[in-house]
Design brief:
The complex is a heterodimer of chains A (273) and B (300). By secondary structure, chain A is α/β, with parallel strands linked by helices. Chain A folds into three domains: 1-81 and 159-237, Rossmann fold (3-Layer(aba) Sandwich); 93-157, no CATH class; 241-273, no CATH class. Chain A is built from eleven helices and ten strands. Chain A has helices at residues 45-49, 75-78, 98-108, 113-127, 142-154, 172-186, 199-205, 223-228, 230-236, 242-249, 262-272; strands at residues 6-14, 20-29, 34-39, 60-65, 68-69, 82-85, 160-164, 191-195, 208-213, 216-221. In chain A, helix 3 crosses helix 4 (113-127), helix 3 (98-108) packs parallel to helix 5 and helix 4 (113-127) crosses helix 5 (142-154). Chain A is globular, with a radius of gyration of 19 Å. The N and C termini of chain A lie far apart (43 Å). Helices cover 70% and strands 3% of the residues of chain B. Chain B has one domain. Chain B is an all-alpha fold. Chain B is globular, with a radius of gyration of 23 Å. Chain B starts with 18 loop residues before the first helix and ends with a helix. Chain B has twelve helices and two strands; from the N terminus they run H-H-H-H-H-E-E-H-H-H-H-H-H-H. The chains are: A alpha/beta (273), B mainly alpha (300). At the A-B interface, strand 6 and helix 3 of A face helix 8 and helix 9 of B.
């Protein structure tokens, strides 16, 4: 595993209106990690992750991604390494067909026609989009548009994926689909950063949680460590997934006291009944 | 500045507590209409220039000159194209007086005069209206127009359009970021297409949802409507409004009455070197500023 794929050193970001959205953040993310960023609205989560592909530049401090200083490299250069999937897929869909949408990023990278086709085919196969290749993206349902938006980034094969609220507007099936996609994606080894209020998703899909509050990182650990840290949870007013809260309330020998999934607690609980 | 704070044309309310911010919207509207009437009543560049400069002074006094400065910085160079096209093809009844030649193109004296007039007219007619937008809360304008009997639906359409401007501009910034995240280099008109389609589609979708939301909340129902905001006209507001009407009527009468004396198109004979300098300068500024703006739209 490559260490320190993403490094933030004393990162500060202050917007033009004077609001400091990120304050003295020090952070290292290794290659292959699946990291969740959680916190209340306005805590600085999105501001932080937008530094990773250069959409925002540090006001102070330094951010390096794959050895490149974000402050001195363009979004265009960084997009080869970092793929950012926006919360609203409508903000990036513009082509007249799904196939063109998938090819857009690859064309921008200056790849040959053969390489573009290969990238598109790879994305289509991974996401199961072969039925929709000639469909106008705006004719697709919202969950499918989200999938196309993610597929369009996947086609570029970045080392880092940033998923900004991937489950917003999704029903239970949609959330499960996203969770399964992340699991499938991680098998290929990229680094995945998930910004989401969906605690269930964060519990199931991530290895590590970064907790932000008022522009600072106040917690950094595994989901079990974070969901057991009552001080952090109280400070941020975040609530673990229901199954985690249930497992914390049922204090019986043999039962996990910080279960992250239903499966984790179901069998031990059944055995006690 | 964060790349996400994208406000290409800043025609929005700039909060403040100046005399103009506190002034009732109707007198401001009267003066704005007066500026438009006067601007179209004459072609005299001096009169139009005075109106424009007067408006500029008001921007300074209201504390909104920075916002207006950004507006001018973007649109003024583009408006210089009026000078170029008018100089070559005057919007004036012939005969025209040729004064210089640039390659195959002939510059006409009436054209240069017409270009100056049109440029001054465009800016004189618009700057008080822009000052009104920058110093008036949309809800206050809505309430004021409703109080003078403007049809509710028409009033709403006007206010919704004003409020849509910053929303669309913000959307455009987000969309440009999304496309840049997919390695879009964003140069030239071709680079705008990936950004404009999502903006327009999003705007249409938003408007459709807004119309459903409005209907669900009784928009269009018959009967008198109350308003959360109530604004009352003070004595000062009345005075400013009445003075505005008087100034508009008097000045328009005077410029029409003395239109022959104010028609300087035959009096001013532009030296050829000056005419060529003006035309080339305006053309160059227009082209360069357009290219710079297009490149800036996608640059980090």
């Amino acid at each position: 595993m490559v260490e320190n794929l993403i490094v933030c050193e004393h990162l500060w970001h202050t917007y033009a209106g004077g609001v400091t959205a990120v304050q003295d953040v020090n952070l290292k993310i290794d290659a292959g990690e699946v990291v969740g960023v959680i916190g209340q609205n306005g805590s600085g989560k999105t501001t932080l992750v937008k530094h990773f592909n250069g959409l925002l530049k540090p006001s102070q401090g330094k951010v390096e991604v794959s050895g490149l200083d974000v402050g001195t490299h363009s979004v265009n250069e960084l997009s080869r390494f970092v793929g950012y999937v926006f919360q609203n897929p409508n903000h990036q869909l513009f082509a007249t067909s799904v196939k063109e949408e998938l090819a857009f990023g690859l064309n921008n990278l200056g790849l040959s026609a053969a390489a573009v086709d290969e990238g598109v085919d790879r994305a289509v196969a991974f996401f199961g989009l072969d039925r929709y290749l000639t469909t106008h993206p705006y004719r697709l349902s919202f969950p499918l548009r989200k999938m196309v938006a993610l597929a369009a980034i996947y086609a570029m094969q970045p080392k880092v994926y940033i998923l900004d609220e991937p489950t917003t507007g999704q029903d239970h099936i949609g959330v499960t689909l996203v969770s399964n996609l992340i699991a499938k994606l991680r098998e290929q080894g990229p680094t995945i950063v998930v910004v989401s209020h969906d605690m269930r998703l964060q519990a199931e899909a991530t290895d590590r949680l970064i907790v932000m509050r008022r522009a600072e990182i106040i917690g950094d650990g595994t989901p079990k460590e974070i969901f057991s840290d009552h001080a952090v949870l109280e400070a941020t007013n975040l609530h673990p997934p229901q199954i985690t809260r249930l497992s914390q309330l049922i204090t019986k020998p043999g039962l996990p006291n910080t279960a992250l999934t239903v499966n984790e607690i179901a069998a031990p609980l059944a055995s006690t009944l | 500045m964060a790349q996400m704070d994208y406000m290409p044309i800043p025609i929005v309310l700039i909060p403040g507590d100046s005399f103009f911010h506190r002034l009732h919207p109707i007198p401001k509207l009267i003066w704005s209409i007066g500026a438009v009437v006067l601007a179209f009543a004459t072609r005299n560049p001096l009169v139009l220039g005075v109106v424009f400069l007067g408006g500029l002074l008001l921007f300074v006094l209201s504390g909104t000159w920075r916002g207006y400065g950004r507006f001018i910085a973007i649109l003024f160079p583009i408006s210089l194209s009026l000078m170029v096209f008018q100089s070559l093809a005057p919007a004036f009844p012939p005969p025209w007086t040729p004064i210089a030649q640039i390659g195959p193109f002939t510059i006409y004296n009436e054209g240069v005069y017409s270009g100056l007039s049109l440029l001054a007219r465009a800016w004189a007619a618009s700057n008080l209206a822009i000052l009104m937008v920058m110093t008036t809360h949309p809800s206050d304008m809505f309430a004021a127009l409703q109080s003078i009997g403007m049809p509710y639906e028409l009033n709403f359409m006007l206010m919704a359009s004003l409020q849509l401007i910053p929303i669309v501009q913000r959307e455009f910034g987000i969309v440009v970021s999304a496309q840049r995240s997919r390695a879009m280099m964003a140069h030239g008109f071709a680079a705008l297409l990936p950004s404009m389609v999502p903006v327009f589609a999003g705007t249409i979708e938003r408007v459709q949802q807004l119309s459903m939301s409005l209907e669900s909340r009784g928009f269009g129902s018959k009967g008198e409507k109350t308003s959360l905001r109530k604004i009352r006209a003070s004595t000062t507001d009345w005075i400013v409004g009445i003075v505005g009407v008087c100034v508009t009527v008097l000045s328009s009468f005077l410029v029409i009455r003395y239109r022959h004396e104010l028609d300087w198109s035959k009096l001013i004979l532009m030296p050829p070197w000056l005419a060529v300098s003006i035309v080339l300068g305006c053309a160059g500024t227009f082209v360069v500023s357009t290219v710079v703006l297009m490149r800036r739209a996608g640059r980090e």
